[in-house]
Specification:
Blueprint lengths: L1 E6 L4 E4 L3 E3 L3 E6 L4 E6 L11 E5 L7 E5 L8 E8 L16 E10 L9
Parallel strand pairs: 1-4, 3-9
Antiparallel strand pairs: 1-2, 4-7, 5-6, 5-8, 8-9
Length: 119
């Protein structure tokens, strides 16, 4: 299963949820914002990539981050901050506030076995 983490101007949206299992794919993407810096607290991440990464719609290689939950991470909640820069002055009027904003999110790693779709 793939868990999608969508970063918007207002919040962080998880689809289907913030609960992940070892080996699952996690995709971070932007919607309505041009860039964001994702930083896992204390550098502790459950993902295959670095504990800090940047998403940027102006760079085709950084428009989204496709990672996997490592097989060796501990079962726990992995908190992260998302820093979204202030909108450019030409768009500031359409945003509530015009300062850079930090949003708080996280991934909850569980070791529960996958559900049987036949049940």
């Amino acid at each position: 299963m793939t868990v999608t983490v969508t970063i918007t101007a207002d919040n962080i949206i998880y689809s289907p949820s913030d609960i992940v299992k070892h080996g699952e794919e996690v995709v971070f993407q932007l919607q309505g914002v041009s860039s964001a810096l994702v930083t896992f607290k204390d550098g502790a991440t459950c993902l295959s990539g670095p504990g800090s990464f940047t998403l940027d719609t102006s760079n085709p290689l950084a428009q989204e981050s496709d990672q996997h939950v490592t097989q060796t991470c501990l079962k726990r909640f992995y908190a992260f901050d998302v820093q979204v820069p202030a909108p450019p002055p030409s768009q500031a009027a359409s945003f509530i506030g015009s300062n850079a904003e930090t949003k708080k999110g996280g991934l909850d790693v569980t070791t529960d076995p996958p559900e049987d779709p036949k049940k």
